[in-house]
Amino acid sequence: MAALGSAVSPPFVGEQPVAEDAASCRADYAALGWSAITLRHVRFHWCRASAMSAAQRADARENRERIVEIAREAIAGSGELRLNAVAKSAGVGQGTLYRHFPTREDLLAEVYRQEVEELVALAPELLSSQGPVEALSRWFDRIAEYARVKRGVFAALETAVWKGLSEESHGPLGDAITLLLDAGKAEGTIRPDIDARDFFILSGYLTRLDEDEWDSRARHLLDVLLQGVLSR
């Protein structure tokens, strides 16, 4: 029987995945041949530690997601991002915020990257349940929100930083709009001469909107763009 102080690390750390449930813990320690008393003590403490670790990881993920969401709302609203206000609204301490995002720029960049990821994921999701034209229209709804957040993020970042973010997002966003356009072209509802580059150029006018006219003009101008790509 293996001794409690043996070099074997419960439950087989480094050889097998650490067990995260009670049944797996019981099986692992039984395999070592430990006594029932030893098993009860070690199983209790190790499984409790594993459960606490899993809970802590889940809490950390939730804190991070909440911080990013609060920051996004601030940028899309007032356009001003104050870290102390974000931490307070997210219900976390300043230390927690800085562990996830050491600088204001780190948080701004994450907000933008998440916006891009959501937009890219939305394209195939919309096409799975709607026709190409309706899917493109719904995607444009989300583009209006994204463009507002993007403007706020880029305005708060150094030129080199926002240019880097913009360059890294062109590929994924280009793939998403190409997917939507190609679906419409195959159906015959989207003009065959329109591509992703046309979209990027034409949607660039959103950056020219003043803040006080965003709500009244942003989606309207995207509707004009949508009508322009439809086949006649």
UniProtKB/TrEMBL annotation:
Pfam families: TetR_C_43 (PF21597), TetR_N (PF00440). This is TetR/AcrR family transcriptional regulator. Residues 82-101 bind DNA. Residues 61-119 form the HTH tetR-type domain. InterPro entries: Homeodomain-like_sf, HTH-type_TetR-like_transc_reg, HTH_TetR, Tet_transcr_reg_TetR-rel_C_sf, TetR_SbtR-like_C. Signal peptide: none annotated. Keywords: DNA-binding, Transcription, Transcription regulation. It comes from Amycolatopsis halotolerans.
